[in-house]
Amino acid sequence: MHLTNLSCHPHKPSVLLRFQNVTVLLDCTVDFTPFNHFLPHLDDEWSRLKNLPSFRDDLPYLKLLKETVFIEGAPEVNPIPLETLHMDMWIIF
Q: Which of 31, 42, 52, 57 is the Cys-Cys partner for 78 at CB 3.0 to 4.6 Å?
């Protein structure tokens, strides 16, 4: 038996369990924690969020809102690395 932790967060586990002839992915989730640091995507140029002050002048994409710094841009997610998965055998419950 071989056990591999695929998560970078201990409180959001994603574990790959390998036996001789079976591979099982337990709690295979995508980590959406980085979304907490991004501003909502806005189509309206007149929104109040578009007029937030920059955190620093040399980093205009960092915005300050009530003493919290947010990123103005496309959110990023951390998927499980596909090279760790083998598609030769899957068990569906």
A: 31
pLDDT exceeds 70 at position 54: yes
- Please indicate, yes or no, whether residues 66 and 90 belong to a single structural domain of this protein: no
CB 52 within 8 A of CB 58: no
pTM over 0.90: no
Map tokens 């980085």 to a residue. Answer: 34
Strand partners for 64:
69
Nearest alpha carbon to residue 27 among 48, 6, 41: 6
The H or E element spanning position 8 is none
Within this chain, do residues 69 and 88 fall inside the same structural domain, yes or no?
Answer: no
